[in-house]
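Continuing the series of single-chain predictions for the mutant panel. This is the parent chain; the variants come on the following pages.
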Amino acid sequence: MWMSRTLNRLTVAIIVAFSCLLAAVAAQTTGKPGASKAPKKSAAALKAEENYKTVCQVCHLADGKGLIPDMSLNDGVWKHGSTTQAIAKTIKEGVKGTLMLPFKDKFSDEEIQELAKLVKAFEPKKPAAKTKK
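Parent structure:
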């Protein structure tokens, strides 16, 4: 009798644990409470990531480091302007005398703007200002 009671309790414990696991997995895949709090990306942002991977990543690499220092997007050096508008202009018009081609015929203005935002995100974060004590 005590064996059957112990087995029943163990079975209930396993069912409860399994149910909790299923609920956690479902929350992560459906976005219900308890799911990851990462913001969802817009369709335009996802398209920009796709465009970067297919066109830009060849020279600028996945992490923005670039094949050579002049191609780096993450060193904080912006030869043609660091604003999103300046980056968009560089993407659109290219840079004469370099390997940076113009992409105004490949991407729409909206796609170029989203791509510029993505590229700008490679910029290193500035350290917080130190406060005097």
